Amino acid sequence: MSSSQIEIQLIASLVAVACAIPGVFLVLRKMAMISDAISHAILPGIVVGFFITENLNSPLLIVLAAVTGIITVILVETIQKTGLVKEDTAIGLVFPALFSIGVLMIAKNANDVHLDVDAVLLGELAFAPFDRWMVDGTDLGPRALWIISIIFIITLGLLLSFYKELKLSTFDKGLAASLGFSPVVIHYGLMTVSSVTTVGAFDAVGAILVVALMIAPAAASYLLTDDLKRMLWLSTMFGVISAIGGYWVAHWLDASIAGSITTFLGLIFLGVYLFAPKRGAIAVWYREKQQKTEVSLLTFLLHLKNHTEQAERHINHLQEHINWQKVRAKTVLDLALKNNMITIENGLVTLTQKGEAFTSKAIDYIITNKDAQIEDMKEDFFLFRG
Amino acid sequence: MKEYFDLIISDYTLRTITLGTAVLGAVCGMLGSFAVLRKQSLLGDAISHAALPGIALAFLWTGTKDGHVLLIGALISGLLGTFWIRGIISKTHLKSDTALGLILSIFFGFGMLLLTFIQKMPNANQAGLDKYLFGQAATLVESDVWLMSVIAGLCLLVLILFWKEFKIMLFDPDFTKTIGFNTKVIDILITSFIVLAIVLGLQTVGVVLMSAMLLAPAAAARQWTNRLGVMVLLAAIFGSLSGIVGTAVSAYQNNLSTGPVIVIIASVFVLISFIFSPNRGLLFRQLRFARNRRDLHMHKTLAFMYQIASTHQNISHPHAIKILNKFQGFTRGTLKKLEDKDFVILEGNEWRLTQEGFNVAANLYNQQKKPNE
């Protein structure tokens, strides 16, 4: 590995981590789309900064862009507060308008200078090592590395010092307010950090990757855990893995690093989405199917309990009476047999003692809706686990 | 103005673009109304980003830059993105905003990967694929406009045919299910049309601005009416007006790309609607608030006067205006208004309650007291 390869991976990993931290809170607070809005709406801020300084690397650009990001959030909230449209519509109205203003400002005034919409929006990580920070002729390393390191350290510092407040205001706004820390301050603090991170990161990797890096790791880890701390760790890990993995895929394909990192993130999310043990799509699908069978089982047992006549209990009549398809009837019968709830003799189905007990308990539960009676049933049946 | 109309008739490019953006605006307005009312406003943003890998893959597979082939690619990947978003929302506890942001960024990132990969390919005529990112109305040709018109007509036909179903699904989805309509089919139908409209618009206004095309006309139309039919119609009009005016403005000025101008015009429509619409608009709402506040002040003053007057035998016993100072409801304006209504008589620095004023105040007082009785 050459030094510039190491630098790129370092920058990508730092960006990933710096984005993952605010991303977790955005996802938890149901404000994930704000990051998308900010990443587009900061364009006019950058353009104005560029007109003032005539320099694409000036820190003023970052400051103005971050300010524009916060203005975006305020605008969205103002529109939302009028009650004329819903929140998502407010977001969708604000950022394209701001973005358009940015594009038009570039088109009107910056045609002859080097400022391209795609350059701003898409970013190219591969060039980051060439833009170095020189002080008196000494090479201090890539500028992007410095910017993102500073942002990361500030984010980390804020996270550590306000962890409690963030956690509380995310999960219980009311309690946070009554305990005396203002959710509004925390909210705008988080928005400022997100805005600054977005700006700092998209300078290196482009706007879309920022959104992916903020949301995807948080979303994937949210499917794996409920614990905030673990979620933060997992997101960080997913971010770094895809930063480095994505870099090598891009290297191999000779394609955009940002795109490749995003794709890597997508694959990680797809994997988690499908295979997460409790909340993955497959697990949910299996559970739903199982619950369906169990509901049928319960219906079936209740039917048996209510009917002592032989005709009603004959195995061939089941389909007729409960109107099940053959396959499902068989599954349910098997399940009941396996659990020793019924016996079949000469095609006659009879409830066993266990089956009787089970049915009474279930009826009890259905009538009273009290959990106490069915604690022991939760082990065996999805149905009662809620 | 007249010159411009002449130009539209004589100039092929201008005519095509104007027609194209007008039709696009109308379709987006119609469908956007449903997106806005179903709280799926940002779906447009997500789908327009999600269409990118489809465009790239269609190009990689067929090797042509034929607009319609790319369109089909975009459509498929847009639909795929939409259904994955559905899957995330229904199968996991992730919320819709997370699902949207996730699909949007992941699909777009994957599209970028493919695009850069394509650009590095030898002997590919790949130039121009990236016009889908930012849109270029100038690339519209007549066949595009025809395609848009056909789809607009189809969309209109479906809307008219299934109007009742759409309407009922918007406002009472549970009821729709209980009376036995297959909501899934209706849902898929409207979503597919939204995806189709977005894909059509990509070439004209680009990925980023597409969501505004879908939202802004609908959000503006929503302010003027509470009726779905009127809203859809208004949104279509606002949408096509944005397209026409936007094209005209960008044609008059150098270096103004059409897409952003259209979006800004549409945003202006929204702004005007937010402020000036008669029932929901902010201006009239503020006026109503102000009038209510004034009435409240007046009533407070009157009630206070009534309390003082009722301690005297003669209700028209004069009192100094100064007495009212203790009490906040009183302003010069309210006094004047009370005098205009002949509730009080002002003489120098003194006021007197008239019989009528006393009666009204007594009534007011009764109304206030009633709940406590």
Round the mean pLDDT of chain B to the nearest integer and report it: 84
Distance between the termini of chain A: 52 Å
Mean pLDDT of chain A: 84
Order of helices and strands of chain A: HHHHHHEEHHHHHHHHHHHEEH
Question: Can you put this structure into words, describing what you see?
Answer:
The complex is a heterodimer of chains A (386) and B (373). With 386 residues, chain A is mainly α. In chain A, 73% of the residues lie in helices and 4% in strands. In chain A, the strands form two sheets. Chain A has a two-stranded antiparallel sheet. A two-stranded antiparallel sheet of chain A has the order 3-4. In chain A, 44% of the residues are buried. Chain B has 373 residues and is an all-alpha fold. In chain B, 75% of the residues lie in helices and 3% in strands. Chain B is built from 16 helices and three strands. Chain B has helices at residues 2-10, 12-37, 43-50, 52-62, 67-91, 96-120, 131-134, 142-161, 163-171, 173-178, 183-222, 228-252, 258-276, 282-309, 332-340, 355-369; strands at 319-320, 344-347, 350-353. In chain B, strand 2 and strand 3 form a beta hairpin. Chains A and B meet through helix 2, helix 5, helix 6, helix 11 and helix 13 of A and helix 3, helix 5, helix 6, helix 11 and helix 13 of B.
Task: Offer a quick outline of the entry.
The complex is a heterodimer of chains A (386) and B (373). Chain A has 386 residues and is mainly α. Chain A has helices at residues 3-28, 32-41, 43-53, 59-82, 87-109, 117-122, 143-161, 163-171, 173-179, 183-205, 207-222, 228-253, 257-275, 281-306, 310-313, 318-322, 326-338, 353-368; strands at 132-135, 138-142, 342-345, 348-351.
